[in-house]
Amino acid sequence: MSDLTLEDVARQSGVSRSTVSRVVNEDPNVSDTVRQRVLGVIRDTGYHPHAAARALASQRAWTIGLLLPHSVSFLFTDPYYPHLTKGIAQACNQHDYTLALFLVGSKDDEEKTFPRLTRKGFLDGVIVQAGHHGEQWIIGRLVDSKTPMVIVGRPFRSDNVSYIDIDNVNAAYTAVSHLARLGRRRIGLITGPINSTVGIDRRQGCMKALTERDLTPDPALVVEGDFTEAGGYYAMRSLLSARPDALFAASDVMAIGAMRAAREAGLRIPDDLAVVGFDDLPIATLSDIQLTTIRQPVLQFGARGVELLLDLIENGIDPPRHIVMETELIIRDSCGALTRK
Questions:
Q1: Is the CB of residue 87 less than 8 Å from the CB of residue 103?
Q2: 280 with 253: CB under 8 angstroms?
Q3: What is the pTM of this model?
Q4: Sign of the C-alpha dihedral, residues 63, 64, 67, 73?
């Protein structure tokens, strides 16, 4: 049965793929009970690990690096990053890997961190949260070093790297189309940063939805945001003079800030201003007006990202793999759809 894989043996043994690999490579950090169970499955099935794969596995550090190119303060104020990190950490635990976290907020940080990311025997691979122009430099260096790597979020150059993402264009299109179907005609947009793929893609989806419904995009109704609550608040204040009757904010955090600014200005949500956010993190349901939003599977990004990285580690980094996960429109109070039924 030479076509058996580590996954097949792991499934029949009731353990993770990483545990099977450790047994095959005589790693001492496996209990006798588990070792005997795995060896029994190997013996019964006639599984024979590939010699090259065994040689590679024997040199593993059983550690994955997570590189977040942001400051510490940004990491803990945007709930997206703790949820992503949680998903990755849970998947690492499931596969018997240790997770090492690297925060890179400046060029100096990058210069100090890069040698550690590529040091032989220190890490088996790296997951990088990316999408900004400034992060292409370190991604390019990791590509050149042949380090197994998965990018969370489509990078600007995606032909030579493996990444996992959602279809941000279609997701934003769905959000704005929903507002248009509710009869809203002056739809304001708080986009993500224009130096990021996520900001560019979500803006493109918004414009596509407006154009298809003969709602000429008004420059006065479009403001660039920064994915912070304060950014959403001040963006909304700048939109008030354009008198929007609806708003799409490219993150839940910005939507919460925008709703605060709108209510301070005397607007009623959703009567005067229908609002849709993006992410569906817990913050979306903490307000007295629960937020209609686009749900993206942030926790699942972690699990799929780790699985994809393990595939690259065990089977090689070429060709690059691209995974696009599904999103869903979650309708709550803030858009007015529930009160119109």
A1: no
A2: no
A3: 0.81
A4: negative
Residue tagged 């997951």 (tokens): 127
Q: Give the domain ranges of the chain.
A: 6-57, 63-166+298-325, 168-296+329-340
Q: How many angstroms separate the Cα of 252 from the Cα of each of 17, 72, 234, 281, 318?
A: 36, 20, 15, 7, 36
- The listed CATH number (1.20.1260.110, 3.40.50.1980, 3.40.50.2300, 3.40.1190.20) that belongs to domain 63-166+298-325: 3.40.50.2300
Judged on CB neighbours under 10 Å (0-12, 13-18, 19+), 14 is exposed
* 313 C-beta neighbours (distance < 10 Å), count: 18
Q: Fill in the amino acid letter for 225.
A: G
Query: Which phi and psi (to 5°) does residue 328 adopt?
Result: -150, 135
Q: What is the pLDDT of residues 271-329, one digit of tens each?
A: 999 999 999 999 999 888 999 999 999 999 889 999 999 999 988 888 999 999 999 99
